[in-house]
C-alpha cells in the first residue's frame, strides 16, 4: 500500500464531477485547492534507536532480510489509516515510526522475537495489514527506549480446509483476497468482507473483532472464529477446535479483540460455508430513516433479514445520489426515482442475499413481504448491483478528498433498537456542532449496516472544510461524538476496535473492575509490558 493513503500507486478514484460541485456548494471547499502529500524524501523520520546487539540477535533469529530498518519500511509502518494518521503522514511526520520491522516466518520465530524483546525491554507492535483506524499500529514507546513492529506478512501460507466440518485453519498474516482465493479453490468462503478487505489480514480481523459488510448474514469475525493460536511473551495460548464448549470462561474470547496487547495471533480456525451459487443485491426506499429502521427491526426479529442490510439516513441518501456512487443515477435521476415512489427526501436501502439459488429466492420473498408491510418500495436490482460493484471504493475517494483540503472521517457504534433513533440524532448533532466553523456547515450522515435481534450498528460519515489545525478540528469532533455515544447508551466501537483513539472511553464500557481484570491478564501474559503499549487498556 502507498505510504500516504489507500491502494497502490496509480490506483485513483477521482471524485465524480458532481462531487466537485457538492464540495463547493455544501462545504465551501475551494475547487482549485490541492494539498498533495509531501514528497517521500521530505518525510521526517527519526534515527533508529534499536541497540546494535539487539538488532544482531534479531538477525540471528530471523535472517538479515527479515529485519528491516530502511526508510521505506519504517515509514510504511509508522501509522495506520485513520484520518489523523493520514493528515500527519501526508504532512511528512513519521515521528512515531518503529526503529525496525521484524518479519518472522512462523509462530516459533514469533516466540523467539517476543522472548528477545521481553529480555531487552523493546516494545513490540503486531502489524497485519496496517489498516487500523483507531491508532492501533502506531508505535507508542511508553517509556521503552526502542520499539519494533512485528509484521505478520510472512505468516501467510497455511489454508487448511476441513470440508466435513466446514472449518479452515488460516495463518494470521493472510490478506483478505488471498485467504478468499485459497478458500475458493476448495469451494468454500469465509464471507468476511470489511471495507478494508483488500489490505487487512485474518489476524487483524481477529485482533479487532471486525465486522464485514455481510456480517448480519455470515456473522462477525468473533462468531466465525472457532479456535485461535496466540503466542504471548509468557508462552502460547491455544484453544480447541470444537463447535461449542461449557469449559469455563472462554480463552478464545479473551484473545478476540486483544489488539496485540497480550500477544501475537498466529493462526485462527474459522467456520466456512460453500461459495454461494447466487448473489442478489437490490435497492429499496423508505419515506424516512425512522420508518426504515423500524422495518429492518421487524425483519431481523422475524429471522428474515438479508445477509447485507444497509439503510442510509436522509442525508446519506441525498449525498449518495449527488455523488452518483449508488450507480449511474445522477442526483436528478435519483430524486425523480424517489419522487415517483412517494419517497422524495426519504431513504435508500440496499439488501443483499447470498446462498443457494432456491434459498435466496425464498428469503428474498419473505423479506420483501415485511419490507413492503413496513412502507418500503422496491427499486430493483440496479442500485444493489451498483453498491456491490463499488463496495471497496470509498477509501480511494477519501485520498482525493484529503487532496482537496476536506476533513473526511467515519465512526461507528451500536445500541439497542429502543435507543437507536435517539442516539442517531445525538451523535449527528454532536458532530455538526463540533465541526460548525465559520462559513458553510459540515456534513454528517449515517447508515445502519449490521442488524441483531436486540439492536443495530450506526455508521457515521462526516465531512467539513479542513481548518488550519486539522488535528485539533478532528479531535473536537471525535470527542464530541464519543461523549454523545457513551451518554446515549452506545458502545464506543461496534467494529473499529479501541486502539489509541477510543482508550479514554473504555472505562465507561468495561467498568473499573473489568479494566483491572484485563490488566491482570496482561501482567500475566506480558510481564514486561512490551506488547503494543499505549493501546486498548487505559
Ligand atoms: C478504509 C477502511 C475501511 C475499513 N472498514 C472496516 C470494516 O468494514 N469493518 C471493520 O471491522 N473494520 C474496518 N476497518 C478497520 C480495519 O481495517 C480493521 O480493524 C481490520 O480488522 C484491521 O486489520 P489489519 O490486518 O489491517 O490489522 P492492523 O491494522 O495491522 O492491526 C489492527 C490491530 O490489531 C493488532 N494486530 C494485527 N494483527 C495482529 C495479530 N496477528 N496478532 C495480534 N494483534 C494483531 C495490531 O497491533 C493493531 O492493534 C477499516 C479501515 C479502513 C482504513
Please sum up the structure shown.
The chain has helices at 17-27, 52-62, 71-76, 83-90, 107-120, 176-185, 202-208, 215-218, 221-224, 251-255, 289-301, 314-323, 331-340, 357-373, 381-389, 394-403, 417-435, 470-487, 506-525, and strands at 67-68, 100-102, 123-127, 147-151, 159-162, 167-171, 188-189, 225-232, 235-238, 264-271, 273-274, 278-286, 308-312, 347-355, 377-380, 406-416, 443-448, 451-452, 455-465. The chain is α+β, with helices and mostly antiparallel strands and 538 residues long.
How does the SSE layout of this entry go?
Layout: H1 17-27, H2 52-62, E1 67-68, H3 71-76, H4 83-90, E2 100-102, H5 107-120, E3 123-127, E4 147-151, E5 159-162, E6 167-171, H6 176-185, E7 188-189, H7 202-208, H8 215-218, H9 221-224, E8 225-232, E9 235-238, H10 251-255, E10 264-271, E11 273-274, E12 278-286, H11 289-301, E13 308-312, H12 314-323, H13 331-340, E14 347-355, H14 357-373, E15 377-380, H15 381-389, H16 394-403, E16 406-416, H17 417-435, E17 443-448, E18 451-452, E19 455-465, H18 470-487, H19 506-525
Parallel strand pairs: 2-4, 3-4
Antiparallel strand pairs: 1-2, 5-6, 6-10, 7-11, 8-9, 8-10, 12-14, 12-15, 13-14, 13-17, 16-19, 17-19, 18-19
This protein binds flavin-adenine dinucleotide.
Write up what this structure looks like.
By secondary structure, the protein is α+β, with helices and mostly antiparallel strands. It is 38% helix and 20% strand. The protein is built from 19 helices and 19 strands. It has helices spanning 17-27, 52-62, 71-76, 83-90, 107-120, 176-185, 202-208, 215-218, 221-224, 251-255, 289-301, 314-323, 331-340, 357-373, 381-389, 394-403, 417-435, 470-487, 506-525; strands spanning 67-68, 100-102, 123-127, 147-151, 159-162, 167-171, 188-189, 225-232, 235-238, 264-271, 273-274, 278-286, 308-312, 347-355, 377-380, 406-416, 443-448, 451-452, 455-465. The strands form four sheets. Strands 12, 13, 14, 15, 16, 17, 18 and 19 form an eight-stranded antiparallel sheet that branches. Strands 5-6-10-8-9 form a five-stranded antiparallel sheet. A four-stranded mixed sheet has the order 1-2-4-3. Strand 8 (225-232) and strand 9 (235-238) form a beta hairpin. The longest helix is centred in the last third of the chain and has 20 residues, at 506-525. It is globular. The chain starts with 16 loop residues before the first helix and ends in a 13-residue tail after the last helix. The model is unreliable at 325-329 (pLDDT under 50). The chain binds flavin-adenine dinucleotide. Flavin-adenine dinucleotide is lined by residues 80-81, 125-133, 136-137, 152, 172, 194-196, 200-201, 203-205, 207-208, 210-211, 259-260, 264-265, 395, 495-497, 499, 532, 535. Residues 80-81, 125-133, 136-137, 152, 172, 194-196, 200-201, 203-205, 207-208, 210-211, 259-260, 264-265, 395, 495-497, 499, 532, 535 line the site of flavin-adenine dinucleotide.
Amino acid at each position: 500500500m502507498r505510504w500516504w493513503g489507500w491502494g497502490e500507486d496509480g490506483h485513483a478514484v477521482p471524485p465524480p464531477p458532481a462531487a466537485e460541485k457538492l464540495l463547493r456548494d455544501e462545504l465551501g471547499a475551494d475547487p482549485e485547492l490541492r494539498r498533495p502529500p509531501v514528497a517521500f524524501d521530505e518525510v521526517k523520520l527519526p534515527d533508529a534507536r534499536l541497540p546494535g546487539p539487539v538488532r544482531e540477535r534479531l538477525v540471528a533469529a530471523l535472517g538479515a532480510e527479515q529485519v528491516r530498518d530502511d526508510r521505506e519500511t519504517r515509514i510504511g509502518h509508522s501509522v495506520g489509516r485513520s484520518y489523523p494518521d493520514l493528515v500527519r503522514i501526508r504532512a511528512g511526520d513519521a515521528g512515531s515510526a518503529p526503529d525496525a520491522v521484524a518479519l518472522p516466518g512462523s509462530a516459533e520465530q514469533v516466540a523467539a522475537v517476543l522472548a528477545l524483546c521481553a529480555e531487552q525491554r523493546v516494545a513490540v507492535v503486531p502489524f497485519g495489514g496496517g489498516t487500523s483506524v483507531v491508532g492501533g499500529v502506531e508505535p507508542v514507546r511508553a517509556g521503552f527506549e526502542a520499539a519494533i513492529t512485528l509484521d505478520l506478512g510472512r505468516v501467510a501460507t497455511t489454508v487448511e480446509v476441513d470440508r466435513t466440518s466446514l472449518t479452515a485453519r488460516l495463518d494470521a498474516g493472510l490478506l483478505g483476497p488471498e485467504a478468499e482465493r485459497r478458500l475458493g479453490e476448495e469451494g468454500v468462503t469465509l464471507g468476511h468482507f470489511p471495507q478494508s478487505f483488500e489490505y487487512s489480514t485474518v489476524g487483524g480481523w481477529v485482533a479487532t473483532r471486525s465486522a464485514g459488510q455481510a456480517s448480519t448474514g455470515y456473522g462477525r469475525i468473533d462468531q466465525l472464529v472457532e479456535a485461535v493460536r496466540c503466542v504471548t511473551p509468557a508462552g502460547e495460548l491455544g484453544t480447541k477446535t470444537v463447535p461449542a464448549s461449557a469449559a469455563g470462561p472462554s480463552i478464545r474470547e479473551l484473545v478476540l479483540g486483544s489488539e496485540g496487547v497480550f500477544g501475537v495471533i498466529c493462526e485462527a480456525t474459522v467456520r466456512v460455508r460453500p461459495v454461494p451459487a447466487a448473489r442478489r443485491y437490490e435497492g429499496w426506499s423508505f419515506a424516512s430513516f425512522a420508518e426504515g429502521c423500524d422495518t429492518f427491526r421487524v425483519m431481523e426479529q422475524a429471522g428474515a433479514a438479508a445477509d447485507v442490510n444497509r439503510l442510509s439516513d436522509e442525508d446519506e441518501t441525498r449525498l449518495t445520489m449527488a455523488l452518483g456512487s449508488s450507480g449511474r443515477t445522477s442526483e436528478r435521476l435519483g430524486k425523480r426515482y424517489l419522487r415517483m415512489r412517494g419517497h422524495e427526501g426519504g431513504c435508500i436501502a440496499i439488501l443483499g442475499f447470498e446462498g443457494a439459488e432456491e434459498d435466496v429466492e425464498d428469503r428474498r420473498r419473505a423479506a420483501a413481504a415485511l419490507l413492503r408491510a413496513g412502507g418500503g418500495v422496491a427499486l430493483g436490482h440496479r442500485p444493489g448491483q451498483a453498491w456491490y460493484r463499488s463496495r471497496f471504493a470509498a477509501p480511494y475517494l477519501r485520498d482525493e478528498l484529503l487532496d482537496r483540503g476536506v476533513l473526511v472521517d467515519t465512526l461507528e457504534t451500536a445500541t439497542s433498537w429502543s435507543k437507536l433513533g435517539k442516539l442517531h440524532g445525538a451523535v449527528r448533532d454532536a458532530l455538526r456542532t463540533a465541526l460548525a466553523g465559520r462559513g458553510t456547515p459540515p456534513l454528517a450522515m449515517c447508515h445502519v449496516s449490521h442488524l441483531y435481534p436486540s439492536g443495530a450498528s450506526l455508521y457515521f460519515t462526516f465531512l467539513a472544510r479542513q481548518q488550519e489545525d486539522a488535528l485539533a478540528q478532528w479531535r473536537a469532533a471525535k470527542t464530541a461524538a464519543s461523549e454523545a455515544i457513551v451518554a446515549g447508551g452506545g458502545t464506543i466501537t461496534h467494529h473499529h476496535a479501541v486502539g489509541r483513539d477510543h482508550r479514554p472511553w473504555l472505562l465507561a464500557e468495561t467498568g473499573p473492575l473489568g479494566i483491572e481484570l484485563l490488566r491482570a491478564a496482561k501482567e500475566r501474559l506480558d510481564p514486561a509490558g512490551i506488547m503494543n503499549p499505549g493501546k486498548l487498556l487505559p
